[in-house]
Write a structure and sequence with these properties.
76% of the residues lie in helices and 0% in strands. The chain contains 19 helices and no strands.
Length: 502
């Protein structure tokens, strides 16, 4: 009996580190393709547009897999779903690492995309397996890990690819994903018994097709041309499919995503902040990476290598991880309702620093450190708010939907950067003018101002709009209390469903 108790205790202690490692591995592997696109094009003798698919395909598969894994993980088979998805990532990593040719590499990257849906499952696992305070702390850390992993993935994979070739970079992904799978198999607990609900197959198909179309438009806009008929046709069809999916989700008994939860002002604020915040985050990251690598012969830029460009992102990762420890203290010193706006304000300052100090390496390091703090404060709170506001049986799906919106935001921010810089590129030239970076940064300032206002105004407007009949519920106060509990872990948070139980 003592042996079993000791084993159980060790598993509980190892759970959070393993979940964090699993989420970090997923983030690193997801970014594997980005720094290696030029090398892939050269080694496999394909165009840069074709090599871009090594990143695009992972994003597309991840967008579809995230809500599906989230829904499956809300049932009694969360542990099995997590391990199977992690095994698929390992298989994809090995397939991408083997020198079988370009299209086998793309197939491997597609399988790796399944891993994007693992972080919401990790968050749902932490929510169920840990007591209140530890649970909320772990949820915040897991949310930040997905952001910090991007900053870690770029320099690591860039250095490996530059030193040992592209296949070594993917072998690195295979090793760390295999280790994550083994550790997860050892420590993941079995979830509490829950009703097994059928997967919403029509909803999955509709959402998958809509997301594939929308993300294709965002990722291929530069190569297709933003004014091309093909692009606008795909965009129109995708919007129609998305509308059909929303209609279906609101009518089916077992939806893939419970869209009615968006009537909850807390969930709505977290989801809108995730979408728009993702745009601002990737817009700035894309600007920094491109600017640092721009040859000095253009009259601007630093002429750095891909490895140096990746190292510039390390302060982003470090600051975002540090922010998960700072948020509770920030909450105690200020109003808890100000956590999200303060994070947006710090992110705004990071873009302003880029505007005035981008011609020096130290300026980019400072930009990334400030961006990490701002994004960390913002994203650390979101999953906690959602977890506190939805029933246990909806956590995986709700957090997955938030992660999905972030992914769309990331893609939009990256595409927005490309579109603005392309608009400032003269015919026959390969590189934009410095004015393109200025204008893109100004757009980034607008994005963070908008999301800051949203995080202040939306909860109050939603609360006022959802007050019903003569029942006077101070939902604005409940919003603030939910934020406080999500970031400090001081008390359990009652489920708030737009002023009434459904």
């Amino acid at each position: 009996m003592e042996t079993r108790t000791g084993l159980s205790t060790r598993r509980e202690r190892a759970l959070v580190p393993v979940l964090v490692f699993l989420s970090a591995v997923v983030a690193v592997i997801s970014s594997l393709g980005a720094p290696m696109i030029p090398t892939i094009a050269a080694v496999d003798h394909v165009s840069l547009a074709e090599a871009q698919w090594s990143l695009t395909i992972t994003m597309l598969v991840g967008a579809v897999a995230t809500p599906v894994l989230g829904r499956l993980g809300d049932g009694p088979d969360r542990r099995t779903v997590t391990l199977v998805a992690a095994a698929v990532v390992v298989l994809g990593s090995v397939l991408a690492a083997l020198p079988l040719g370009f299209w086998w590499l793309i197939a491997g990257r597609a399988l790796q995309g399944v891993g994007v849906g693992l972080t919401p499952l990790a968050i749902a696992t932490a929510r169920d397996a840990l007591p209140g305070e530890k649970s909320r702390s772990a949820v915040a850390l897991l949310s930040i890990t997905t952001v910090a992993g991007v900053g870690l993935g770029y320099p690591i994979t860039g250095l490996i690819a530059q030193s040992f070739g592209i296949h070594a970079g993917f072998w690195f992904g295979a090793v760390i994903s295999g280790l994550a799978l083994v550790l997860a198999a050892l420590v993941l607990p079995r979830p509490a018994p829950r009703e097994r609900r059928p997967l919403d197959v029509p909803g999955t198909v509709l959402l998958g097709l809509a997301l594939v179309g929308l993300l294709l438009v965002l990722s291929e806009g530069e190569s297709w041309g933003w004014g091309s008929g093909r692009l606008w046709t795909v965009a129109a069809v995708s919007v129609l499919l998305l509308a059909a999916w929303i209609r279906h989700e609101l009518r089916t008994a077992h939806p893939l995503v419970d869209l009615r939860s968006l009537t909850n002002p807390i969930v709505l604020t977290a989801d809108v902040a995730g979408l728009v915040g993702g745009v601002g985050m990737y817009l700035l990251i894309s600007l920094v990476i491109r600017y640092v690598q721009t040859p000095t012969a253009t009259g601007y830029g630093l002429g750095a290598s891909v490895v140096v460009a990746g190292l510039v992102l390390l302060p982003f990762s470090g600051a975002s991880l540090a922010s998960s420890k700072m948020v509770p203290a920030l909450t105690r010193r200020t109003s808890s309702a100000l956590v999200l706006p303060i994070g947006c304000a710090v992110s705004l300052v990071s873009v302003l620093v880029f505007l005035v100090a981008r011609d020096q390496l130290w300026g980019h390091l400072l930009v990334m450190a400030l961006a990490g703090l701002g994004v960390g404060c913002t994203f650390a709170v979101m999953p906690g708010l959602i977890v506190a506001a939805v029933p246990a049986g909806e956590v995986g799906s709700a957090v997955s939907f938030n992660q999905l919106l972030r992914t769309i935001g990331y893609s939009t921010g990256s595409a927005l950067c490309g579109a603005v810089l392309q608009a400032h590129t003269a015919p026959g030239q390969l590189l934009p003018t410095d004015g393109g970076y200025r204008d893109a940064a100004l757009i980034g300032c607008v994005v963070w101002v908008v999301i800051g206002l949203i995080t202040i105004v939306l909860p109050r407007l939603s609360a006022a709009a959802t007050a019903r009949g003569g029942a006077r519920v101070d939902e604005e106060l409940m919003v603030e209390e939910s934020i406080a509990d999500a970031v400090t872990g001081e008390a359990e948070v009652p489920v708030l469903r737009a002023g009434a139980d459904r």
